[in-house]
Design goal:
Length: about 325
């Protein structure tokens, strides 16, 4: 989560009338006070986008590949999935009841594109934005006042928050926070083409972990590449990518604490729940200098340099075994 001083700075320009809005401030305190709220919120957005893409069945990884009807459905899914995750009570007139106050949920894939219905006037809206292209998301609270809205002309008489009042009338919960990366969307196009070229799901996964190293790879990316029901089996040892790439010196760490410890010792971002990180390693030798290393199979290993020849990678510790201290 963002440090308190940074979050406070994000709301420095909020108008005094917003600061004095006791209901809005109560909802703000309730949401930010929930355990691991930022991480969970980001997870809902990531999982909802992945749910829409449905990569296991469709092979899609890009928001632009969605049908218009699917994009329209995104707001409803995010509303539902946030309620499931945070156990919000049903609202009386709006979507949720948070801190005893009705709150409406509005999502837009375009920042500032939230469509506010007339019945929301006077109520608090939870405004949510996420972009897979920027790997960023924001969520804030807005008390709907007619004078703070653009006057719309659509059939439903829905309005949008004026650009001026986006700056001083929205109390941000999280602003430009990190959205877990959609690796397939952001990887080199030539590498992506190489990943999808094989007809075998196992070969596609091998190529994914071979070409996308030192980056967190989410479970949905694995599912999209494998396009098989037993996709997790295709990552593990005993015939999966982990054993297939071991002769090339490539380790594939999962979200076990012991695997996360290996990644951390090597100076990599440890995989979070449902994620993997691959990297080619080499036995530590004098030319590596004083770099970060991890002891596996009784020997020190480092991230391989380009000039290091491939050698069989060590075995990763089991999920119950502690990584040897160095």
């Amino acid at each position: 989560m963002l440090p308190i001083d940074i979050r406070a700075a994000q709301n420095l320009a909020v108008a005094e009338e917003v600061r004095r809005d006791a209901g809005l401030q109560a909802v703000h305190a309730s949401l930010t006070g929930m355990e691991h709220a930022e991480e969970r919120f980001a997870g809902v957005l990531r999982n909802t986008i992945d749910q829409l893409l449905n990569g296991e069945v469709t092979g899609r990884y890009d928001w632009a590949q969605l049908y218009k009807t699917e994009r329209t459905h995104a707001g409803t899914l995010i509303e539902i999935n946030l309620q499931r995750e945070f156990k919000f009570a049903d609202g009386e007139a709006m979507d949720y009841r948070i801190a005893g106050i009705d709150v409406d949920c509005k999502y837009s894939q375009s920042f500032g594109g939230w469509m506010i219905p007339p019945e929301a006037l006077g109520h608090i809206c939870l405004l949510v934005w996420a972009s897979d292209y920027e790997s960023r998301w924001s969520a804030g609270l807005f008390r709907v006042q007619r004078e703070w809205l653009n006057q719309g002309s659509n059939r439903d008489a829905k309005l949008t928050v004026s650009a001026t009042h986006r700056r001083d009338k929205i109390q941000w919960l999280w602003r430009d926070a990190e959205l877990p990366e959609n690796v397939l969307l952001h990887m080199n196009p030539a590498d992506r083409a190489a990943v999808f070229a094989p007809s075998s799901g196992q070969q596609r996964l091998n190529e994914l972990f071979r070409r996308v190293q030192k980056r967190r790879i989410g479970r949905n990316v694995v599912r999209t590449v494998a396009q098989q029901k037993d996709y997790m089996k295709r990552v593990r040892g005993n015939g999966g990518a982990r054993s297939a790439l071991r002769p090339e010196g490539i380790l594939i760490m999962g979200d076990y604490d012991s695997h996360r410890a290996v990644a951390d010792r090597l100076g990599l971002l440890p995989p979070r729940e449902g994620e993997f990180v691959s990297v080619r390693v080499a036995r530590m030798r004098p030319h590596h200098g004083d770099v970060r290393h991890v002891v596996l199979d009784g020997e020190p290993w480092v991230i391989a340099l380009a000039e290091d020849p491939p050698e069989t990678a060590p075995t990763l510790p089991s999920h119950t075994k502690q990584v040897e201290q160095t």
